[in-house]
Specification:
This protein is mainly alpha-helical. It contains ten helices and four strands; from the N terminus they run αααααβββαβαααα. The chain has a single domain, classed as Alpha-Beta Complex (Aminoglycoside 3'-phosphotransferase, Chain: A, domain 2). The protein starts with 9 loop residues before the first helix and ends with a helix.
């Protein structure tokens, strides 16, 4: 077994300002080939929408737990925008299901799992939970773009979004991508703060700062979602 060089992770390359647009193009090409051959997940639009409603409820329930002292007003604003978008656009989600766009993907596509060299290597697929791997490719890349923002590389996030929407998108994909980003940032805030609910959390000072960073990203996307609803 050969150990991969951590200096070549997308995370380190972003932090060290070594990543190039060519690297991201290679990543997008690699992901496109992967999703093209990924197994479609069979489900009904109704089940898919019900799952989304459960996801939003889970985020809201944890983030508004008084023990966590999250910014309740901000959480409610983000949650309201996501719920309004989901209620107003069930057809966007149904089209993805009917078009067999929900596939057996990676499940945890973060910069530390992507290695950039002469070719792209992606590790740590969520093998233990098929349900978490059942994703829309737009959703997985939206998650990756959130992480690029968090690492201080909005140019990489914007590049991913432009290239993905131009390559895979249709007229409705931009709004859906924004929703996915907003949700993923909120989910990461929830998972981050949930560490504080453990009996003896490690580095408890770390999680509130990280959660606030994710909530700032989610809030910016929530405002964009509201604007999209007003222009319909």
């Amino acid at each position: 077994m050969r150990r991969l060089n951590e200096a070549l992770t997308l995370e380190h390359m972003l932090l060290d300002h070594r990543l190039t647009a060519r690297d991201l193009d290679l990543l997008i090409t690699t992901l496109a080939a992967f999703y093209r051959h990924a197994t479609p997940i069979r489900m009904t639009p109704g089940l898919h929408l019900a799952e989304w409603h459960r996801n939003l409820c889970d985020n809201r329930r944890v983030l508004l737990d008084p023990r966590l002292e999250a910014a309740a007003g901000l959480v409610r604003m983000i949650d309201k925008a996501q719920r309004r978008f989901l209620h107003a656009n069930p057809d966007l989600f149904a089209v993805r299901v009917r078009g067999h766009k929900i596939v057996d993907g990676h499940g945890d596509l973060r910069p530390e799992h992507v290695f950039v060299d002469d070719r792209i290597r992606i590790i740590d697929c969520l093998e233990f939970n098929p349900k978490l791997r059942a994703v829309d490719p737009l959703d997985e890349v939206a998650f990756l773009s959130v992480e690029c923002d968090r690492l201080g590389a909005p140019w990489a996030s914007d590049f991913l979004q432009r290239r993905i929407l131009r390559t895979w998108g249709d007229p409705s994909s931009e709004a859906l991508f924004c929703f996915y980003r907003c949700y993923r940032a909120t989910l990461r805030a929830r998972l981050t703060l949930a560490h504080l609910l453990e009996p003896n959390p490690r580095t408890p000072e770390k999680w509130p700062l990280l959660a606030r960073a994710y909530l700032r990203i989610a809030a910016a996307d929530a405002i964009r979602l509201e604007r999209k609803l007003k222009t319909r």
